[in-house]
Amino acid sequence: MPESNNSKKGKKSNGMRLVLLGPPGAGKGTQAEVLSAEYEIPHISTGDILREAVREETEIGKEVNSFMERGELVPDNIVTEIVVNRVAKPDASRGFILDGYPRNKGQAESLDKALEGKKIRIDRVLYFKTSQSVIIKRLSGRRVCPKCNSIYHLKNNPPKKDEICDRCASKLLQRKDDKEDTVKKRLAVYKEAEEGLLGYYKTKNILKEVSGDLSAEKLFRSLKASFKKEGP
Ligand SMILES: [Zn+2]
After folding, report:
1. Looking at residue 187, what is its pLDDT?
2. Domain boundaries, given as residue ranges, for the chain
C-alpha cells in the first residue's frame, strides 16, 4: 500500500483503532489475539459481543436473541449499535481491534456514521490478502473434538494419535464449514462483498494490505515492525 500522503497523519496519531478484514481462514482471529496482548487493547469479535449481549440479557441482547432463535441474521443496525457501544467503553479508549465486522460497504458506512456520533475514528484497516490455496489448506485440515472443543490441524497441530483427541480420546470431526467445497462457497460469497468494502476504505486512505499467506508468527513480526515505523 502506498503510504506517502498519509504518513504524517499516521505518525501524529497514536491511535490503534484497527479493523481487520479478510476472508475466512486468513488468520485474522489469531493476529487479533496476539496484537491485543502486545498493545493491551481489547480484541472485539462481533460474534463474541453478540453472544455476550444475549447472555447478559440486555434490551438489545433480547432483540439479538429473538433473531438468532428464528435462525435469522441479526440486522445491521443492531450489530452496529452493539459494536459502537462496545468500542466506546473505557478499556477501548486507547484502541481496539475489531474483527468480523463490517462485512460489506453498507455496514462500513453505517458503522462510520455511528462512530462519528461518539467522536471515534478508525485509524487503520488491515486487509489480510490471502490466496485461496492457503485458505483451503488451513481450513480443510482443521479438526475439532465434539466433546471438549479442542481444535487441531492435521498438519500444523496434529493430535498424537490419528484423528483422536489428545485430551479426551474422542474421535475428531471436520466441521461442515471447513470442508473444501463449503470453503470455496464461503470464499465466493465473501469475495462478492469484499470489493465494495475495500474500495470504501481505500478512498478514506486508511487501508493497509498485509499478507495472510504468511505464518502467524511471521505476520505478527512484520505488523509490529510496521507499526513501530509508521504507526498502525
Ligand atoms: Zn476432546
Report:
1. 93
2. 4-131+188-230
| Phi and psi, residue 64, nearest 5° | -55, -45
Q: How far is the CA of 138 from the centre of ligand 1 (A)?
A: 20
List, for residues 91-100, the tens digit of each pLDDT value: 999 999 999 8
The C-alpha atoms of residue 111 and residue 101 are separated, in whole angstroms, by: 9
pLDDT tens track for 131-164: 999 999 999 999 999 999 999 999 989 999 999 9
Q: Is 103 a catalytic residue?
A: yes
Judge whether 28 counts as a catalytic residue: yes
20 near 34, Cβ under 8 Å? no
- What the block records as the C-alpha cell of 47 is 460474534
Number of neighbours of residue 45 by Cβ within 10 angstroms: 20
142 is catalytic: yes
- 53-63: pLDDT as tens digits: 999 999 999 99
CA angle 122, 125, 65 (to 5 degrees): 75
CA neighbours closer than 13 Å in the CB half-sphere of residue 6: 16
Report whether pLDDT(105) > 80.
yes
Nearest 5°: the CA angle 54, 56, 62 is: 40
State the catalytic residue, choosing from 28, 124, 143, 208.
28
pLDDT of 4 over the 50 cut: no
Alpha-carbon distance values, 85 to 3, 94, 114, 146, 194 (Å): 31, 15, 10, 34, 25
Is 221 catalytic? The answer is no
CATH fold of the domain at 4-131+188-230? Rossmann fold (3.40.50)
For residues 224 and 218, is the Cβ–Cβ distance under 8 A? no
Q: Note the pTM of the prediction, 2 decimals.
A: 0.84
